[in-house]
Amino acid sequence: MSHRIIKLSLFTLTGLLFVFIMMMGCSNTVHNISSSYQPEGIVVDSSLNEWSNQLTYDNRSQLFYGVTHDQRYLYVALQTKDPLVERKIMAFGLTLWLDTTAKKKRERGIRYPIPKKERLPLPEREEDKDLPLRARQARPEDSRRFLRTTDRKHMLLLDFDGKDRQQVDVNKSEDIRVGIRAQSSSGVSYEARIPFARIFDTPLRGEKKLSIGFVTGHLDAPDRPSGIGSPGGMIPYGGNRRGGSRKGGANEGFDQLRESTELWLKGVKLTLR
Hints:
About 20% of the residues lie in helices and about 30% in strands. It is built from six helices and 13 strands. The strands form two sheets. It has a seven-stranded mixed sheet. Strands 2, 3, 4, 5, 10 and 11 form a six-stranded mixed sheet that branches. β8 (about 155-160) and β9 (about 165-170) form a beta hairpin. The longest helix is centred in the first third of the chain and has 25 residues, at about 1-25. It is globular.
């Protein structure tokens, strides 16, 4: 009887250890980072050409990251070449979290690209009010084909200016800028620029600390559908560009798609020198 209890205890411990490893594989926190100050700003075009020697690789989250700033703006960069993380970002969205308490609080966020389930309806144009519903839905920006993927024309500002959610046209935003690019050779590249006045409510003076979180969306599905493939030419679950597969095969890849990938830069030091 005692041997059976020991076996059950070992089985339970092994299961808990596996769950812990899986959780740690998708989430990570990096401490003691100093943002590099530069007198000239960075052009946010998602090419990452100006970040050549400033990106650091985090093996656990499969993400390259960079943080820099000038007198007015905070700049962040993100890049991944991992197929599963790429798909989470491009199919299910990405949120950049900013925490002025320097902990891991989701205080203010910028969600871009926006997953289709969270896309807010566009304001109705005056000239369209007399059109039938079908004609209004057939507009290019509201077509069903457009809604099959993430929205890269808008960003969601979360808890900025005392408002829970604001949908902003990316090309019309003059202060907060975001950009994203997906290429087969360099993976997914992301850039953002945020004014310090929108983060701390005042310009940067002296020394401040800030925590920055990158959190991907995830697949909202309880089980792997039978016969699932890779619609739209997207990378198959668990696959890679060379035709191989990740360790554990397609089922493990599907399970990982159901979890967000998180990377937190905790207590980033910001100074004007």
